[in-house]
Every structure is written in structure tokens, then in C-alpha cells.
Write a structure and sequence with these properties.
The protein is α+β, with helices and mostly antiparallel strands. Among the domains are: 360 residues, Alpha-Beta Barrel (TIM Barrel); 113 residues, Sandwich (Jelly Rolls). Helices cover 15% and strands 33% of the residues. The protein is built from nine helices and 45 strands. The strands form twelve sheets. The protein has an eight-stranded parallel β-barrel with strand order 4-5-6-7-8-9-10-12. A six-stranded antiparallel sheet has the order 15-16-17-22-23-26, covered by helices on one side. It has a five-stranded antiparallel sheet with strand order 28-29-32-34-33. Helix 6 links the parallel strand 7 and strand 8.
Length: 685
């Protein structure tokens, strides 16, 4: 059986350094029938460990009436994780937050009169009963039994967002951990969120970081995020700022590795504040954390979803339930790498530039601590100086350069010469031009088979282990590879940055690199392409056989080019205004949709405050306007022919933070500007 543990520097797998990528998906916020497809998509994005809250109110909304059916079927979800050859960390609460009603607590729990999230004996007894029900669902699926669950997170933001602090808080975390063990949770790793002064009870602390703070009370741009600065500081003071700051850390950083569990894969907007997380916002933040010494990249969320239907109430966070924010009733898209309906986004591709590197080179990186030069700026308001860092062991390592600050313009720099702090020799990089919004990392003294890559102005992406080892790099500049020694049994392959974003490593009889506008997903028994264009791909090296249905068109720089024809789809959408008042506009939408496709997305471009989509009288989707098109999967609703859209008016000067306001007419916006259908094709071989 594989063993898992940790040292003060990194996680270990069978005693060796292990750098996993972790991604959050909430099974209860996504349809059961699509779980496997989505977990394979997550794996294709580089995720190795699935994390998920077990949200109490989703399972026991009515006291002692447990619901583990449908999308709430925890056992089936964990079994699916196992079938997809993934590992899992279960976040068992009892309080989770997760933008859920009451932070995940059922309403009935709030009526008991107990002091919740304290050492109140009655509260702890109720938690033990809840933990027991969770354990019954996963009994036999822990690592020790051959299952995928390697870890458990206890509570969430405890002592930072509610709960006790100091020794009382530490004891509470120890009490919860003991309860979890008593009911059967025997796992190698127990974690606790550690930011903002949260107490951890001696558990493995995991950190977080978001590119913005949609929960913040302000209606203007907030201060530039410190998550774009190379620093040994692990804390993000913006997390939970709506509940009040907790400064500093409650644990000794020297005893624990730098791990993240809530690196924002996007942002879930609130009614009053709607920042848009773009792909490079997440990519740059990821690389900066890497250059700051992180040895686990854990994303919250990695996969968006939809709140389930409540039996008694809606299940989203609201001000009516005493929380600082109003959120959509259904939509939990989060603008994540994989969106609400399973769409593979540009953020997944952007982040994959780093996760692909981690998959092949992460174990070595684990042993390279961050070396942050004294002249690296430590204030995110400094827009004049580039930020840089090294990760190094001995004379080998990586130079990290960041000139990206979300929603700010950084000064460009010309012909900058960097010297690596390598032991025993001087490593000097060729002059580098650094533009606003640039972020990248370059290797030095990197082993390439029998040779050494002294420096390069290109970023490593992955390696293909075949008869010879192909080291794949990407850059849009002259790579200026400087090698020492003869390159025997190895070769260099250089992609553009855009090609690397669209590159997917697939292992079959050989290790292949697929480049395609479609997402290329390895589902173990087949390879699946999901995309909105004609299925086409470049493959290196050429496939042993041309896949059925594809035509090999040409060879291009060592890649074989394949293409497949798909039937033309003649879908159509039309809409008509049926009601308009000062407060809202209502539209009927007529759809003619081909059902034998992977999916068809209704894309709505509207101006307004909020929008709701109905099928008959049932609300099926909702949205807060952000200045971006709204996509709705029609597969999810069995390809309906008619829908009704209700837009609420956005008044000029309304108390909202929007990065882009809609066009106003007579002081308001309340209009559907455009509707279109986009077909997604699925091709497998």
C-alpha cells in the first residue's frame, strides 16, 4: 500500500518528495451522471488529489432525515474518484462555509441553543453523530482499505471566521480530530486551514490566496493583492475580510511545509461585488506561489457547480441568514478552471502550463527551497520594479520572474541580466526583456540526460519518456538554450506559449503530446476530445495508427496532423420580449437544438443586474451580471425547446462593484442583447 506523510519541507509518497496538485469539486453541487467525465477533465488539467466539502445542510436539512441520494451520494462519488485512479481529501467540517447557507449548518442546528463551534458537550455530541453518518458512507474507502481517501480536513477557518481562539480553540480542533478518529477516520493526513490567525490543533496547516475579494464590503477596486509578490509570508489577509481580520499565524512555519488548499481557481461573485477572475490572474498567482516555495497547489474551486435544491429553503449564503453577502440561489460557477456545467476554460489551460511541469519535475522541485533576493519588492503597490525569486538546491534551480499585478500596469524593463545564486559557480542568464503582464520561470543547470542545460529563455512544460527522452519547453522568444555536454538519448522540443496551453500529455504505447483547440481527455480506456471546433490535433510523435474516423493530413515540425469531420449542426435560437416594467424584462426563448452532440450551450449577452432562466415554472439557472457572456448547458436540461428569461434592471449608480458596466438607457440597463447557440462536439478513439 502506498504511504503518505510529510516533512517540514514537503509531502511524501512512499517516503519520497511528492508535489501533488489538488482541486476542489463539490459532488453535491454537480450532477452524479457527469462526475466521472468531470474527474477525468480535472485529471487532464493536472489534478491528482480531489478535495470536497461534505456540506452538512445538503445531507441533513431536516433533522435525522439523511439524504445521500443523487448528487448527494457521497459513497458513489468517492468510488468514482477511485475508478479514475485519483486520491482524495475529504473536508468534513462540521462548519464549511463554502458560500453555503449558514456556512453549511442545517437551520435546525441553529435552534438548539447550544454554543456552536465551541467545546459545548451537546454540540460535540451532535458533531460526532454527523461524523458517524459521513464515515458510514465512506467505510471501506479509506486508504488503509484500498480506497482513495488519504486525508481529512477538520473544520474550516476555525478561530478566524468564528469559533474559539487561543488554547480553547486549539483544544476544540483537537476534540474534533479525536471525534473523527473515534468514528473511524484513520488516515495518514489530517489538515486544517491556517490563514488569518486560524487555530490548527497541531494538524497540517494548509493556506489560501485569492486574486480579489468578492466578499469585501467595498464597492471600488481593493488594494493590489499581495498574492503577486514573492514572499515567505504564507498568509493572505484578504480571506474572510468580511468577517474580520486575523493577523499572523498560530503555527510554527519551520515545522510544516508550505501547502495551499484554497488557492483561488477563480472567484464566486456576490451581489454587491463582482470582480472577474481572468485566466492570467490565476496563472500569475499560481506561479508566484510556486516561486515563493509552495509544495502543494490546491485550488478552490477547481470545478464550479450548482447549488442543489433545498427541501425547506434555498441553500445559498444570504444576508437574510446573517451572513455578509448575497449570492445566486443556484449558480456556483466560481469562474473556475472547469465551469458550472463542465466547460474546460482558458483558466484550466493557463494553469496547466504549471501543473504539467509539476507532474514531471515536481518531486525534484520539492527539495528546492525558495531563495528570495533582498531587492525583490515586497509591496504589491510597487509597480515600477519587477518581482523575482529562485528555487534552488546546490547549483541547480529555477529563476521566477513576475511583472503581473491584477488590474494594474507594471513598468516594462529592457535587457535585464539575472545571476542565479548557484553554489560553486556563477550562472548568468542572457539579457531578458520584461513586459507588463509577463510572468515566467526559467531553469538553470537542469539535467537533460547526459547533458546539462546551463540556462534557457524557455520554460519547461513536460517530458516524454520514449526511446529517447523529449524535454518539452515553451517560449515566444528565442529560447537561447545553452547546454554543456553532449545531448545523448535526449532531445529538446520547443512550443509557443499558445501551443503549450493547448498541449496534453497522453500515455499509451508511448508517451505522446497532443496539441488541440479541443480538450484532450484521457479516460483510461479511450481518449476523448471535447471542443467547439472541428476535431483536429497535432501529435508528437506520430500515433502508431491513425485513429478511426480521422485523416492524417500532414507532418509539421515532427508532429503528425490529424483531422476528423463532424456533421454540420443546424441549431437556432430566437427570443422575443413578452413583458417589460421598470424593474424587469421577460423574454421567451425558442430553441431548435440537435441532441446527438456532447452539449449545446445557450450563450446570453445581456445588460442588467441579475438574470434567471426558467423551464416552465421551474427556475433552472441564475446569474449576476459581470460584463461577460452567460453560458447555460442545454444537455443538463435535456435540450429544451422553450425557456423563459427574466432580467432585473440595473440602475445607474447602484451599489455594485463591476469591472465593466452595461450600456445604460434612461439610467438603467435591462435588455437581452444577443442569444446564440454553441455546439460542443465529443470525439473519442
Amino acid at each position: 500500500m502506498t504511504s503518505y506523510s510529510y516533512t517540514p519541507q514537503y509531502l511524501t509518497k512512499d517516503g519520497k518528495p511528492w508535489f501533488p496538485i489538488m482541486g476542489e469539486i463539490h459532488y453535491s453541487r454537480y450532477p452524479k451522471e457527469y462526475w466521472k467525465e468531470s474527474i477525468y477533465k480535472m485529471r487532464a488539467g493536472g489534478v491528482e488529489v480531489i478535495s470536497s466539502y461534505v456540506i452538512w445542510i445538503h445531507h441533513e436539512e431536516v433533522e435525522k432525515e439523511y439524504d445521500f441520494t443523487g448528487s448527494r451520494d457521497l459513497r458513489s462519488f468517492v468510488q468514482t474518484v477511485k475508478e479514475c485512479n485519483m486520491r482524495m481529501i475529504l473536508r468534513i467540517g462540521p462548519w464549511s462555509h463554502g458560500e453555503a447557507r449558514n456556512g453549511g449548518f442545517p437551520d435546525w442546528l441553529l435552534t438548539k441553543g447550544w454554543k456552536l463551534r465551541t467545546n459545548d458537550a451537546d454540540y460535540l455530541a451532535e458533531v460526532k453523530r454527523y461524523y458517524t453518518k459521513i464515515y458510514e458512507q465512506v467505510d471501506g474507502l479509506l486508504l488503509k482499505d484500498g480506497g482513495p481517501i488519504i486525508g481529512v480536513q477538520i473544520e474550516n477557518e476555525y478561530g478566524h471566521v468564528g469559533g474559539l481562539q487561543g488554547e480553547e480553540g486549539e483544544q476544540h480542533m483537537r476534540n474534533l480530530t479525536q471525534l473523527a478518529k473515534e468514528v473511524g477516520f484513520d488516515v495518514p493526513i489530517y489538515t486544517a486551514t491556517g490563514w488569518g490567525g486560524a487555530v490548527t490543533g497541531g494538524l497540517l496547516p494548509v493556506m489560501g490566496g485569492y486574486c480579489d475579494a468578492p466578499w469585501d464590503a467595498s464597492l471600488t477596486d481593493i488594494a493590489p493583492s499581495g498574492n503577486y509578490i514573492f514572499t515567505h509570508e504564507r498568509n493572505d489577509h484578504n480571506i474572510g475580510s468580511d468577517h474580520g481580520f486575523g493577523y499572523g499565524l498560530t503555527f510554527d512555519m519551520s515545522k510544516f511545509p508550505f501547502l495551499t488548499a484554497e488557492l483561488g481557481g477563480g472567484l464566486q461573485v456576490t451581489h454587491h461585488r463582482r470582480p472577474v477572475a481572468h485566466s492570467k490572474d490565476i496563472g500569475a498567482m499560481t506561479m508566484v506561489k510556486l516561486g515563493s516555495g509552495v509544495n502543494l497547489l490546491g485550488y478552490y474551486m477547481y470545478h464550479g457547480g450548482t447549488n442543489p435544491e433545498g427541501k425547506l429553503t434555498t441553500l445559498q449564503e444570504t444576508k437574510a441568514t446573517g451572513y455578509p453577502n448575497d449570492l445566486p440561489e443556484l449558480n456556483y460557477d466560481f469562474r473556475a478552471p472547469i465551469r458550472e456545467y463542465g466547460q474546460v476554460s482558458e483558466t484550466l489551460k493557463e494553469v496547466k502550463l504549471i501543473t504539467s511541469f509539476i507532474r514531471d519535475f515536481g518531486s525534484e522541485l520539492c527539495e528546492m527551497p525558495a531563495v528570495i533576493p533582498e531587492d525583490n519588492p515586497l509591496h504589491p503597490t510597487d509597480l515600477e520594479h519587477y518581482r523575482y525569486s529562485f528555487r534552488q538546491k546546490g547549483n541547480r534551480g529555477y529563476l521566477f520572474i513576475n511583472n503581473y499585478q491584477r488590474r494594474q500596469t507594471m513598468a516594462p524593463h529592457r535587457a535585464v541580466v539575472f545571476k542565479a545564486p548557484a553554489e560553486g559557480e556563477e550562472i548568468v542568464f542572457p539579457p531578458i526583456d520584461i513586459e507588463d503582464k509577463d510572468y515566467f520561470f526559467y531553469p538553470y543547470n537542469m539535467k537533460l540526460g547526459s547533458a546539462v542545460l546551463k540556462t534557457a529563455l524557455a520554460t519547461p512544460f513536460c517530458k516524454l519518456e520514449n526511446d529517447i527522452t523529449t524535454y518539452v519547453f515553451y517560449t515566444d522568444k528565442d529560447p537561447q538554450y545553452r547546454t554543456e555536454g553532449e545531448l545523448v538519448g535526449a532531445e529538446l522540443l520547443t512550443l509557443s506559449r499558445e501551443e503549450a496551453k493547448n498541449a496534453w500529455k497522453i500515455v499509451r504505447d508511448k508517451e505522446y503530446l497532443f496539441i488541440s483547440d479541443s480538450a484532450v481527455i484521457d479516460e483510461d480506456d479511450r481518449i476523448v476530445l471535447f471542443g467547439r471546433k472541428k476535431p483536429a490535433m497535432k501529435v508528437y510523435p506520430a500515433l502508431t495508427e491513425t485513429p478511426e474516423g480521422f485523416v492524417r493530413l500532414a507532418d509539421e515540425n515532427g508532429f503528425a496532423v490529424y483531422e476528423r469531420s463532424v456533421p454540420m449542426v443546424e441549431d437556432s435560437v430566437s427570443f422575443s420580449l413578452v413583458e417589460e416594467t421598470a424593474e424587469k424584462a421577460v423574454y421567451d426563448i425558442s430553441l431548435k437544438v440537435t441532441e446527438n452532440v456532447a452539449d449545446s450551450y445557450l450563450v446570453l449577452c445581456y445588460g442588467g443586474d441579475t438574470a434567471k432562466l426558467y423551464m416552465g415554472e421551474k427556475l433552472i439557472a441564475d446569474h449576476f451580471y459581470q460584463g461577460e457572456p452567460w453560458e447555460i448547458s442545454l444537455r443538463r436540461f435535456r435540450f429544451p425547446s422553450k425557456l423563459r428569461l427574466e432580467i432585473t434592471a440595473l440602475q445607474e449608480g447602484a451599489p455594485r462593484f463591476l469591472e465593466a458596466w452595461p450600456q445604460m438607457k434612461d439610467g438603467r440597463a435591462c435588455v437581452l442583447d444577443r442569444a446564440e447557440l454553441q455546439t460542443e462536439y465529443q470525439t473519442s478513439f
